[in-house]
TrEMBL record:
Molecular function terms from GO: cytokine activity; frizzled binding
Keyword line: Developmental protein, Disulfide bond, Extracellular matrix, Glycoprotein, Lipoprotein, Secreted, Wnt signaling pathway
GO CC annotations on file: extracellular space
Name used for this protein in its record: Protein Wnt
Function, as annotated: Ligand for members of the frizzled family of seven transmembrane receptors.
Subcellular locations according to the entry: Secreted, Extracellular space, Extracellular matrix
Subcellular location, principal: secreted
Organism whose genome encodes this protein: Paramuricea clavata (Red gorgonian)
């Protein structure tokens, strides 16, 4: 069992939420990574092998959502289709749109940052 400190995790619904307070979670590798059925087998392996790095991934996704909302605040598309609840990162879409491309770029930049 690994003890993780995630600032924005709600285990049952989505990794990305708008919570501000830190919360401690005791998570088994398989439980944490297997909750999300939308991850590919390769992504599950990456998650299991790098569980301690998942906090950075989660924080990067949270930053991406905040930046998307900030950048498109007064636009027709205001990130409202990014509910934060649909996938493991809560930010992905099935459709190849310019908004989805922008969102993927933000998530990647947020994680790398």
């Amino acid at each position: 069992m690994v003890l993780l400190n995630f600032r924005s995790v709600e285990m049952k619904r989505s990794i990305v939420q708008d919570g501000q307070n830190g919360t401690m979670f005791a998570v088994q590798h398989s439980l944490f990574c297997d909750i999300y059925r939308d991850l590919s087998p390769r992504q599950h392996n990456i998650c299991r092998n790098n569980l301690l790095l998942m906090e950075s991934v989660i924080e990067g996704a949270r930053l991406a959502r905040q930046e998307c909302i900030k950048q498109f605040n007064n636009e027709r598309w205001d990130c409202s289709s990014i509910s934060g609840k649909s996938t493991a990162l809560g930010l992905m879409t099935k459709y190849a749109t310019k908004e989805a491309a922008f969102n993927y770029a933000l998530v990647t930049a947020g994680i790398v940052h």
